[in-house]
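Following up on my earlier thread - several people asked me to post the actual chain instead of describing it. Fair enough. Here it is, all 79 residues.
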Amino acid sequence: MNKGIMGAIFLLIATIFYSVRYICASIGLSNSDTWTLEEFNVILENVPNNLLIFSIVFLLVGLIFIIWELWDLKNKNEN
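Reply from S.P.:
Thanks for posting it. Predicted structure:
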């Protein structure tokens, strides 16, 4: 499979992990009577940091794959 496509897939997975954090916080806030930014931030802090760590790792891996593909394309064009 093309490294650029793999990089895009890893970036998509990183985006999904990052958005799931906020979706979980929104679900936790849905039972509340008042919806304030402070309350949302408290609930967001209670969401495990694993999703943030996974999203950062997948983001870095995706960027590495895309840069690697661009590097290969540059070297191929020079030859």
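The chain has one domain: 3-74. That should answer part of your original question.
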